[in-house]
Amino acid sequence: MNLTMLLEMAADTGPDRIAVGTREDGLTYRELFDRSCALAARLNTAGHANVAVLDLNTAAVPVLLFASAMAGLPFAPLNYRLTDAQLADTTARLAPALVVTGPTARDRIAPREDLTVLPTEDVVAPAPATDDVELPFTDPDDTAVLLFTSGTTGTPKAAVLRHRHLASYIVGTVEFWNADEDEAILVSVPNYHIAGVSSILSSVYAGRRMVQLPSFTPERWVELAAAERVTQAMVVPTMLGRILDVLEETGTELPALRALSYGGGRMPLQTIERAMRLLPDVGFVNAYGLTETSSTIAVLGPDDHREAFGSDVPEVRARLGSVGRSLPSIEVEIRDLDGNPVAAGEPGEVFVRGEQVAGEYTSHSAIDAEGWYPTRDRGYLDAEGYLFLDGRADDVIVRGGENISPGEVENALLRHHSVAEAAVVGLPDAEWGERVEAVVVAAPGNTPSEPELQEWVRTHLRSTRVPARVHAWAELPYTETGKLLRRTLRDELSAGARTPETAR
């Protein structure tokens, strides 16, 4: 199966159902198909190798995604937060290409003879019926999407997702046309993130209307969710806390909201517990996945949330901090430093295998001979198969020859009543090689105490894990997709960039 077939099935099944936009003036599934098909016909004769978009969330994004699929060209949504130099490098790597830009980004594309720049409004312009248009068959093994990494540690890598990877994920996790006509999903994650791509594909296959939020603010999110009677949404952890603040401050109710999924980074336990109290009728889902795995590979579902939230059994209660259990189509192994699988409860690196797992870049494939992909995430599986993550393998702190996982220390700090968020890094140390330092964000109404938190870690772990310093900051640095910018944190601590906030 290829991506074109997902939209074709939807357009045939419910041509007049709104696919993307408001209830009053959104594009129907037939209109989305016709616009995509018309653009694909233009792409077939233009000589492009790739199709890119540099814009916020608009209806042009799903049109471009499916038009590229129909034309057999890779679709590459670009991170508008990249520097101009990074954008120039990225577009040069895609050339010859069509680059579709929004009004605020048009001047950011460096002129090249092998780049064609097109305004997004041209993409969503009305198109004639496409019954007579003949398009080439797209091989499921062809590249469907190219997603570039953030480039915070050097030149961005381009992850390759083929049609068969994405289609396998969608068909394996979504029941075709299972959404009621009143269902709508609020898409507020960036289009250059795998969650932005998968939300389009899963919504189309389910027949659900997509409501797009071009740029996130919690006030606008709440306003749009209420006005459009949004039934589903996906957020990152940093978004959820701010949304809850607005709901409490304004008294806004969201009676239509049925399901709220989150992922992309660590969700503070206090935040999800607060959300479950404030929105008791909403089913919460923690979705863990990577770009290289075509989105979600493990899920903590609504029943898991409710069972853990209401349990007095420590092992069950702890699962609220897990990412759930793997999808039926995904295998998960935890391996030690020598590559050997470990027992339940033992930490190591997370390896995954399955049809949706691409694990490929334009430069190389990271899949081994047996189909396993090393995620570079550290974690462990409990006895019931629930996956707990504790940071990236690259973030391990080596103190006096002993490996220390930042996530282990962060989890201990997060269990203290005064801590809402915590991040731990290793800094150079003359005696130990690296020392442990922590940054915490206070829980409302609390003032973290450095000696108290140090003693807390010592009691719950051991002395080698105790942070040499505990700094209290107003906020931690995150990407807009919810990932902790650990390198930024490390650089700021090394430079003493935030001086007055050491915990008292």
Explain what you see.
- The chain is α/β, with parallel strands linked by helices and 504 residues long.
- Among the domains are: 1-164, 3-Layer(aba) Sandwich (Rossmann fold); 396-495, GMP Synthetase, Chain A, domain 3, CATH 3.30.300.30.
- The chain has 15 helices and 24 strands.
- The relative contact order is 0.08.
- The mean pLDDT is 92.
Number of helices: 15
Instruction: Please state how the strands of the largest beta sheet are arranged side by side.
Output: 10-9-11-12-13-14-15
- What is the architecture of the domain at 1-164 at the second tier of CATH? 3-Layer(aba) Sandwich
Mean pLDDT figure: 92
Report the span from N to C terminus: 59 Å
Strand tally: 24
Overall 3D geometry?
globular
Strand content: 15-25%
Whole-number radius of gyration? Answer: 23 Å
Q: How much helicity do the residues have?
A: 25-40%
| Overall CATH class of the domain at 1-164 | Alpha Beta
What name does CATH use for the topology of the domain at 1-164?
Rossmann fold
Which structural class best describes the helix and strand composition? Answer: alpha/beta
- Which residues sit in consecutive blocks of at least 5 with pLDDT less than 50? none
- Biggest β-sheet: count, sense, barrel? 7 strands, mixed
